[in-house]
Amino acid sequence: MIIDRLIEGIISKKSPIVVGLDPNIEYIPDIYKCPYADMNDGLEAIGNVIFDFNKDVIDCIYNYVPAVKPQIAYYELYGMSGLQAFYKTVKYAKEKGLVVIEDGKRNDISETATAYAKGHLGTVTDLNGLKIKPFDVDFLTVNPYLGSDGLTPFVEICKEHDKGIFVLVKTSNKSSGEFQDKICNGRPLYEFVADYVNQQADSYVGKYGYSPVGAVVGATYPQISQSLRSLMPKSFFLVPGFGAQGGNPQDVMECFNSDGLGAIINSSRGIIYSYSDKYDVSVSRDEYINSVRVSVLDMKETILDELKKKYKNELMY
Amino acid sequence: MIIDRLIEGIISKKSPIVVGLDPNIEYIPDIYKCPYADMNDGLEAIGNVIFDFNKDVIDCIYNYVPAVKPQIAYYELYGMSGLQAFYKTVKYAKEKGLVVIEDGKRNDISETATAYAKGHLGTVTDLNGLKIKPFDVDFLTVNPYLGSDGLTPFVEICKEHDKGIFVLVKTSNKSSGEFQDKICNGRPLYEFVADYVNQQADSYVGKYGYSPVGAVVGATYPQISQSLRSLMPKSFFLVPGFGAQGGNPQDVMECFNSDGLGAIINSSRGIIYSYSDKYDVSVSRDEYINSVRVSVLDMKETILDELKKKYKNELMY
């Protein structure tokens, strides 16, 4: 099961960490842009830059982390050429043995939800009856606002194709409480979403007891993480908000179980744009690659130290 | 302003109707598939089929409706080739003078939300400093679960590029109430979303008094539509759920103001797959095109009759 592959990656690399691949051309070092500066089709050039950039990041990190999280917004930003870079990035990351979590926050109902699920996680049949995998990512993030009509079709495709989802439960941003924290019958709204996730996860688990029906739970509200951890014991948490958004190592501990599993912590800008506080894009390729390596190893060590401090002998790695 | 262009299309065509372009290859008549049956790349063939199919639909309807709503899930379903068909469809529909409402239900926060907004509604700058419009749709649907951090960046890009959004407030599906109807401090959650939309719409209106910051309000809950109409007086409603999902002509009247404006009713399957109850894909091209024409004219007449019955002399068209 895909969740077992993710867990085995975490254990073998001692690294419950996922690196966000959010390629914003303004922050990408000039060295990646030079080869394409003379291309006429501006977006095609940017697509090439992004793929070269991602390739260097992936080559640098694949021994240290089990997964990458391309944020598809930054690829749609560059139109068809950006999406081509997304497609190639997913393929390349999988070739390197990484689990690919697409951050797409997709959502719709019934047959339309199934269309998203099949396109990103499943297969389609071509005119000659052959099955083709359009994007073939391993996990997709999904938004719950439409209710179970908008979630169950994703779960069904996951079961059919051995894939996973992370449902947005409580996000890391400042305004996440505006709707998510509204109190209904004495409980915040996000707990009702958690109930749905838990119900789906409970009956669908892999060999380590975790389900590929997971939840997005931000690093920035540790007390909420703690209550959600107990409401969704079998779900893996994808945890954004560490670092740049203010979540610290102690905060994210609440997302883990005592075996050191149950959560994977994301960092995007904190790793791929760690080369300079002020985005000095004149950095050399060696300096850039080194900054990625240093920051990912630093994050790995920070999280692992904290886990060891908190869970000592119970830790599985 | 883009909302004025939409309104002028509604008035001149006497048609507050948008046709959903949801190309599912299983339901597309065989006649569109034949020319590409021998192509080796299955998804590229499907992309070509979809564009030819959409082109016939657009040619048939552009005199009768002001707008089309491509549902991007059905293009992502076919990977890069599907998205290429989406890109070409948007371009073709705009050439025919149609307003394009992309049903993408996008959502994310801060810079990432801005990336979605720029990619779909705005511009990006290429390596040579030229501004390029990656997708350039007119309106995009947006999911509010992340709060104002996830909505305001879209509104800002709309203002900069004269575009619009429809925020999911109350959707048409059966399970929409699971989270959207939860009662918080005596009010359903969707009303808090409506408050945000109204606040943004109130200070940003076109010459007819309507704002390009609109709302998705399903046809299937007329009492709710009525209360939302008064909570968001300046917002246009994009109304799904008519026909196939059970919303009838009387139900959708609640989404309009007495001038016959304020709402645009969507039909997808009811028009593009009206050729046969049982999806008999052996239909001829002439029969297919005729079925689209008949069903769109029928819907137009049905809605217009109902508007005339209800609002008589106040109607603007």
What's the short version?
The structure is a homodimer of 317-residue chains. With 317 residues, the first copy, chain A, is α/β, with parallel strands linked by helices.
* Proportion of residues in β-strands of chain A: 15-25%
Helical residue percent band of chain A: 40-55%
Total number of distinct structural domains of chain A: 1
Helix and strand run of chain A: HEHEHHEHEEEHEHEEHEHEHEHH
Discrete helix count of chain A: 12
The N- to C-terminal Cα distance of chain A equals 20 Å
The largest inter-chain interface, given as chain pair and residues per side, is: A-B, 74 and 73 residues
CATH homologous superfamily identity of chain A: Aldolase class I
Physical arrangement of strands within the biggest beta sheet of chain A: 1-2-3-6-7-10-11-12
Shape of chain A: globular
Query: What is the radius of gyration of chain A?
Result: 19 Å
What is the CATH class of chain A? Alpha Beta
Show unreliable segments of chain A.
none
What is the CATH fold-level name of chain A?
Answer: TIM Barrel
Query: Can you tell me the CATH architecture of chain A?
Result: Alpha-Beta Barrel
For the largest beta-sheet of chain A, the strand count, sense and barrel status come to:
8 strands, parallel, barrel
The helix/strand class of chain A is alpha/beta
Q: Estimate the mean pLDDT confidence of chain A.
A: 96
